[in-house]
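Figure 3 (text version): structure tokens given as input.
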């Protein structure tokens, strides 16, 4: 009986092994780095401001200055979105504006008036202490789109959270009262 079980086991393993054999061409997509797509992202140069002063919110400006990662897919423009609080749910994002990428660096910014228009209020309706997140969606000349949802964090050491990349896919803004 043991011999029969061993024979069936060995026969089953051989059948399984032979049935998995792949033939013809490069069957493993990870066998070469040339099979990977080249992405793109913005590298943060500096923060302009993260506070919109309530009394002058319409003209206050928040934003960042960034440049294109030179080894990536060339950038055509950046679509800027905003959401109340902090969310990667794009259904909660509101479109602010499109910013063409024309040079070595780009200012990605918004005034309080831009923010208010995007979320459907007037600057006078801002509530001090409120927080908003701005999200940059990079649109490449190839048509590819990259934002916080399709770049990955790789457990905090990847492109979004990793210190090596210094990527600029989002920035925060707070409504503050002036200090007197």
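Below: residues designed for each position.
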């Amino acid at each position: 009986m043991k011999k029969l079980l061993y024979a069936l086991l060995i026969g089953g393993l051989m059948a399984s092994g032979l049935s998995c054999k792949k033939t013809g061409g490069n069957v493993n997509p990870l066998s070469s780095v040339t099979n990977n797509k080249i992405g793109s992202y913005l590298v943060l140069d500096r923060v302009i401001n993260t506070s919109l002063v309530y009394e002058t919110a319409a003209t206050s400006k928040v934003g960042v200055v960034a440049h294109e990662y030179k080894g990536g897919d060339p950038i055509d423009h950046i679509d800027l979105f905003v959401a109340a609080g902090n969310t990667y749910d794009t259904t909660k994002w509101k479109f602010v504006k499109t910013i063409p990428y024309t040079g070595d660096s780009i200012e990605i910014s918004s005034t309080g008036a831009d923010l208010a228009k995007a979320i459907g209020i007037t600057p006078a309706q801002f509530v001090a202490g409120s927080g908003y997140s701005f999200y940059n969606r990079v649109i490449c000349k190839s048509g590819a789109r990259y934002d916080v949802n399709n770049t990955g964090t790789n457990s905090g050491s990847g492109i979004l959270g990793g210190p090596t990349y210094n990527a600029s896919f989002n920035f925060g803004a707070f409504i503050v009262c002036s200090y007197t």
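The first strand starts at residue 42 and ends at 49.
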